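The passage that follows is intended for readers who have already worked through the single-chain material. We present the inputs for a multi-component assembly, then the predicted structure in tokenized form, and finally a short commentary. You are encouraged to pause after the input and sketch how you expect the pieces to fit together before reading on.
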Amino acid sequence: MSAVTLTDIVKRFGDFTAVHRMSLEIPEGSFLTLLGPSGCGKTTTLRMVAGLLDPTEGEIQIKGKHVTNVPIHKRNLGIVFQNYALFPHKTVADNVAFGLRYRDVSAEEAKRRVNEALELVQLPNVGDRYPKQLSGGQQQRIALARAIVIEPDVLLLDEPLSALDANLREDMRVELKRIQHRIGVTTIFVTHDQSEALAMSDQIVVMSDGRVEQVGPPEEVYNTPSSEFVANFLGASNILPATAGQASGDTLPIEVGGFGSIAIPRDRAPALNGSGKARLVVRAEKLLLTRPGDAPAGSISVDGTVETVDYQGQAVRYFVRVGDTQLQAINMIDGRPFNEGDSVAVSLRPRDCAALPEGT
Amino acid sequence: MGWNLIRTWTLLVYLFMFLPVAVVVLLSFNASQFGSFPMTGFSLRWFIELSQNEAILRAFRTSIVLGLMTATISTTLGVLASLALVRYRVPGANVISTLLIAPILVPEVVLAVALLLFLNFMSINKSFTLLLAGHVIFTLPFVILVVQARLVSIRRDVEEAAMSLGASPRQTFFQITLPLMLPAVLAGALFAFTISFDDITGTLFWKPGGVETVPTQIFAMLRNSISPEINALGTVMILLTVGLPLLGLAIARSASTKRGS
Ligand SMILES: Nc1ncnc2c1ncn2[C@@H]1O[C@H](COP(=O)(O)OP(=O)(O)OP(=O)(O)O)[C@@H](O)[C@H]1O
Ligand SMILES: [Mg+2]
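Having made your guess, compare it with the prediction:
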């Protein structure tokens, strides 16, 4: 049984449709991320699950129960907000204990569970402090403790890490995933940060303009995008006009200007029906630059000229001109990086390519 | 040079404002039977006489009862109105908000006369209840302004967090919203009390015959003679109307330091 089921959810604000007919099943115990650019309807979706917004149409079920008409305080959800939303006039311990007051829990039991939760978020000694006396990262941990101490059916997180600075964000990301794994709570996580989504999720839902673009595990969404939007949104991709041929066996020939015919595995083009106009997607990290003549065996190679070099520490991002198109390549630094104006061989392996129908 | 001029000017303005007040306080301790200079010695005589003056004591009781009732009603109404205006989408919220604030903008005399004419028109007699109603109308805007400002700064997600944890909207109000806006509620109540306690214009128009508040009592006494008792009464009033808000401020401050903010 899935923990959360959305059936044909629509949300309109006046004439504006923020969420278009969305259906989603979230398996028990899984970590699902709503990923998409600003304004695509992630928060709106999450707030409908929370009961903070009523869907205009559609049904929401949590653990098999219809909750569309159940008010938020009867849904048994843990919510972590972007700005922590701790109660400033209560101590940390009282903040964490707050949800237990409305549940059948004895005083000792409550105390034990609060301590357990504080230990789980690795802040066992701050119970007597007030939220203002904690750092941002600590406040966010307390907010998490407060949400999980009630043993919620679903944990909802709306960009919980975005108010933290970059280093802390990465630590908290690992920490959050560890805690989620430990207690096994079904989690819906909202972010517009693709690296967060890729690192943490069991399933990613890529959204754009109130619609679901693709649902799948991180590797699948990353490696086999089902639309140009997804290919562009997750990481840097090269999207080239192409023509698909007739599939034979496990491979599908794709004709790409400049590269000739590339036989890609059939399962890297799941959305492609039959032959005709298509798009070839190659991730920037999969495009390898070498000195002319050094291209690795088994890959398809063309000549190009380096136009821009963007040094990024362990990796370099190059913009290379091949014929009349500019391609993006991100390569690990092995020896000396190329310079602007260098002639290079640009090579790719057929199995690193994916194909999409045109106009998606 | 220019700065010196401004400095002197400022000093003079403050002197002009506070000197009379200081004189009143000083003269209230004067032993002489005339409420004016020269001082002939220090004495608490006028305070003692004050405490034995039936009319003044009655006026004091009336003022305090009126002030407390005004503060209670104004604060309750003010909190409810602010909640409605800030937290719920009320059609015409802007118009309602302007109407509620309007009594501060209209000159008090105009408001007083208007209410009086209205009562006449409705053939309703003056009564203590109507005096109270007048004071509530007049103090409500202050409460609303203070409470609304505070309520706007209370983040909605704090209340949403409380509800997600199982608190009903009512429990959320009493557990979260009210405690967070308590300083503003207390400040509003203090405002309402002091404004009501101080008010003379409206009160003169609205009060039924035979009822006097402290300010109208002073006014009546001044018409006969300037007794030094009035200086003593003035000192007590100053103590009350300055002391109470200061006390309120101190309470609010100590409450917020406890919270480490
Ligand atoms: N109460 C509202 N009234 C009208 N429009 C709204 C309301 N709430 C959200 N919207 C609109 O719905 C769209 C989706 O908003 P939502 O907050 O869900 O975006 P989001 O994906 O969470 O974006 P972000 O990453 O910026 O938080 C936006 O275009 C927004 O302007
Ligand atoms: Mg959002």
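Commentary: DSSP finds eleven helices and no strands in chain B. Chain B has two domains: 1-43, 54-258. How closely did your sketch match?
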